[in-house]
Amino acid sequence: MTALVEIRDLVYEYPGFRALHSISAEIEPATITALVGPNGAGKTTLLRCLAALEPPYSGAITLDGLDIHGEPRKSHEMMGYLSDFFGLYDKLSVEQCLTYRADAQGLDEADRQAAIEWAAKAVKLSDRLDQKAGELSRGLRQRLAIGQAIIHRPKLLLLDEPASGLDPEAREDLANLLLELREGGMTIVVSSHILAELEAYSSHMLIIDDGRIVDHTAIRSTEASEKPVRLAIELSEAHPDFEKLLKNEGELIEISKTAARLDITGGPDSRQSLLKRLVDAGLPVASFGPERVNLQDAYIERVREGRQS
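Above: the chain's sequence. Below: its structure in token form.
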């Protein structure tokens, strides 16, 4: 798959301090990348470079083939960015805030109203268009800010700590929103310290520590394709035919009397067929589904490995 974003040998320096050390990475389209790392690792600096707000000392970033630092204005038409600390015009209504951002993005007047209605619906604020921004709760203000960032339907959305200060319900709403945007084709990069929240919706994890990339890996499949999915299967009790039934279903990674892990291709249809065969054969299937990556455990393990190497 052709990368939407390509980062090549990116170096960024503050006076007397190098924040990013020759970073290179590729981000595939229609994915959600969790950008994680310790405080001071360089996450926000990298996001601001991706947003063409900070020119690097050296290196390059392209967005769909466009050099974003060579043509920052043009690149801003293709991306949305929301910083950790953002401001809203509290005396403006939700509709006026969205109208202002639509105008700032240069949307044609003929397309503006449709864009406002789409963004309001996407962030579930259609019933609050007349309410002033200053009257909204923290979670609703976050939704409005994201609505402003996506009103021009960008190819790339960059979010820095978007769940900061949100209650659990608002965090779940945010996760569902990001999944819906990805399903609509948007590519998203999210920086956050809340790894359990990132685990709910991220497809990739990019770990940065001390200005260097420690790991960049897929943590779940984003499409029903021939890419293998690792299944975890558990039985409530042992069955003599367990291994025999799984032998030709994919690459068997690990098996015991009551549990197995295997890589299977073919998408949801293949998994549904396998489950049906196991149940029809009388196996007491207690759990069956894609193996979930524990983002926090994976993050800690890779950071520690990176520091020891």
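The chain is about 35% helix and 30% strand.
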